[in-house]
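call fold(seq) -> tokens
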Amino acid sequence: MIIPANHTALSVKDLAIGYKNTPVVSKLNFNVKQGKLMGIVGVNGIGKSTLLRTVAQIQPQLSGSIQIQGKALETLNAKTLAATVSIVLTDTIASKNLTVMEIVALGRQPYTNWIGTLSKTDTQKVAAVIQRLELSDLKYKKCYQLSDGQMQRVMIARALAQDTPLMLLDEPTTHLDLYHKVKILKLLKTIATETNTSILFTSHEIEMVLQICDTMLLLDGKNNTYGQPDQLIKQHAFDHLFPADTLAFDASTGTFRIKN
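ret:
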């Protein structure tokens, strides 16, 4: 199915998220266009991961609406959801004794038969994803032999092999050095642009997200501002994100300065 680039992949309106009817964040409103990269930023414990898990239907929404490809999230059955949304969480995989190719092939589960046999199309898609993410030299390596950066690329490859119009990633740059953080974020931007995949991810790397994302959602528990990075800067959305005696946001450079 070919989806137009201006199509709305994800629409969230007046959403409240949380646990056992206790909201963590309320009144969330944003959308993700097809083929665009959107970052969710905010301080620790504000609800970034909870939001991703709610969009993936891992936990229920408390109120409001979530539409994916124009359909209410709660109306999607498990098979349809698996072919529509892929997710990479911070949890470690169950067995690091699997090879890179085996992990990537798991992304094809929504399309395989009941015993999980890969078709010719499945095999071709897995091979194409491995090549795109530059994993060809690693495809027969066990996952326990990989670095954190390599393992992150493998998990992204598994999600990409799932061939969904919407991809969700929770803190994809965690435990990586500066160089590999940048590589992963640039990779996500390339995937969104070249494969017309909508990508929504959480991050603590606010300054990097400002530079690379098409849109951002700033979770602060109050305004929860959404928009293009330059718009958020003009709205002074980052000015009071951290205590004023600790960090100050420089709008001219899009960076935070340590207060002496």
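The chain has a mean pLDDT of 92.
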